Amino acid sequence: MTAIAVMSCAVMQLLDTSVVNVSLPHIAGSLSSSVDEATWVLTSYLVANAIILPITGWLASVLGRKRLLLLAVTGFTLSSLLCGLALNLPMLIVFRVLQGFTGGGLQPLSQAVLLEEFPGREQGKAMAFWSMGIIAAPILGPTLGGWMTDTWTWRWVFFINLPVGILSLLLISQYVVDPGYLRRRSLGVDAWGIGMLAVGMGALQVMLDKGQEKDWFGSNLIRTLSVIALVCLAAFVIRELRAKDPIVHFGLLRSRTFASGVTLATMMGFILYGSLVLLPLFMQTLLGWTATTAGIWNSPRGIGTALCMPLVGYLLGKGWDARWMLIFAFALASLCFFGYARMTLDSGTSDIFWIQIVQGFALGFLFVPLTTLTMSPIPKAETSYGTSLYNTMRNIGSSVGISFVTTLVARREQFHQQTLGDHLTASSPMSQQAFAQLAPFLVRQGVDPVTAAHKAGGLIYQRLQQQAALLSYSDAFYLMGIFFLANIPLVLLMRGAEHNRRHRKEP
């Protein structure tokens, strides 16, 4: 019941992160704004999330973890209601900020509760159960959001949180108990530290979200935001390393297992969330699928993970070495990315279905062992600080990954279009052959010869653009696969979970 209690609130928060994306055009039209203006509904939420995530452990020490969980779920549920009732775009953005602040800590807090509630080898089973919801939420979110928006209105994307939030509140109040060593402490409020963190993380998130749109460092805004983020976050880290009662416990990174795990989590967020954006775009822009169809055919990944999770929990409970499971997962997931890179404009659902199933299976062997192994050397009294830092870095990795893949695809498409265009001149045999086939065909369809010649040239150029886009997506998928393989040496730096538990200092 404890696992269900904390999983419900974490899934609610993660689902809301992805479910709003597909509703943006409807939100823009309903509130009389452009789609570009409506993207601040996403950006404002992500900024607030990024600010609250690193200080979740500190807030749990000050307020008590159960109390903080109850406050967070209550705030998230009420702000969801307000989002659904918003009358204009500025109101919706303000309420989304509140939603981001209250929901940002739900995932690390729920993770910390499970890691402390379940002892030793039972942690693998608990994390497997929790991860089923955590992985399924961002995969099923776009499909659910599109269905609710089309069936009712975009406001139900937010109203759906109300029953889940109320159920979560009842379960948390009944089944979650703070351990004795987690007594509330009177810690000083480092206003300067919190201020530097808020400004730095806010600038970083806005920079990553708007970078491609503003042409990155060709924009004065992006250059300014990058300097602000670099200066504020560097000053924050230096201040925290010297503080007596730091907000973020960077000292936990002295453990090579934890440091390696946090690095792997960052890379996992970078690659995985980047691919979650990449594949639906490929399906819609090149294969011509609708948003709903693309959402449905992104779901098999969740099926593979759900089928795999009980096996992963069982193996961890039997004492299997999580490091070998991670190596297997990274190798298998990279092969799936290489499979995506071989797709063509004629690829169908069957080509994507089995790759997604296998990749979902690989992710099942990735999420749970990585979390369990990374947190194994952390003393239980520091668990909230550890999960807070772990999730912060994964969040930063996902934001960087999304920005990176969208920029990479756009730039590589320009490169391939220019390269293909250099070979497709009016005098080249290939273009002459294509023109000789298309122009007479159009004339036979009733088009006059002059217009047929223009249309034939347009169709050839359109085909060139499609091939350039296909090659750009292929480049991105290959690179994601190589990045996954490059993570394997980091796994070898980690110590086994049993060794970490024997040597950590308990309260």
Key structural traits:
Growth Hormone, Chain: A; 23 helices; single chain; 4 domains; mainly alpha; globular; 507 residues
Can you describe this structure?
This protein is mainly α and 507 residues long. It has helices at residues 2-19, 24-30, 35-38, 40-52, 56-63, 65-85, 89-103, 106-117, 122-151, 156-159, 161-175, 191-210, 220-242, 256-285, 291-296, 300-317, 322-341, 349-375, 383-423, 429-444, 449-486, 488-491, 497-503. Helix 4 packs antiparallel against helix 12. The protein folds into 4 domains: 1-181, MFS general substrate transporter like domains (Growth Hormone, Chain: A, Up-down Bundle), CATH 1.20.1250; 189-244, no CATH class; 251-405 and 470-507, Growth Hormone, Chain: A (Up-down Bundle); 415-468, no CATH class. The radius of gyration is 25 Å and the shape is globular. The longest helix is centred in the last third of the chain and has 41 residues, at 383-423.
- Helix tally equals 23
Give start-end ranges of low-pLDDT stretches: none
Our estimate of the beta-strand percent is under 5%
Fourth-tier CATH superfamily name of the largest domain: MFS general substrate transporter like domains
Q: What's the CATH C level of the largest domain?
A: Mainly Alpha
Quick recap:
This protein has 23 helices and no strands. The chain has 507 residues and is an all-alpha fold.
